[in-house]
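Record type: monomer structure entry
Structure origin: computed from sequence
Chain ID: A
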Amino acid sequence: MGRKAHKMKRMARNIIIAIIIVAVICGLVYSWQSRQQLDYRDCLEETAFTVDGQAVQMKWLGFYVVYEEREVEKQAQHLSCRQYSRLLESPCGWSFYPAGCQGHDHADGDP
């Protein structure tokens, strides 16, 4: 009876390991499929999200993102490099600079 119990334990352990391996493989396949690049042209008519029952399509979401980015760029054109970098300071203490401002110390009268 000792051998039979030992074989049953080993078989149970092997089944559990096989289930874990299958679960990991399924997770990796799902992760890989969800990380594939989005072909924007093919998805223009798809719904990105819904707000209060109103579907927002990918093309409108893309338009909004580009519009807002242009507005930010317009506002940033009037800022000096120092002012711009202060706006973009991160909580971690990192500083971000717009193109052409990296390493420049502009005497723009900022306090």
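Annotation 1: Residues 104-111 have pLDDT under 50 and may be disordered.
Annotation 2: The CA atoms of residues 4 and 10 lie 10 Å apart.
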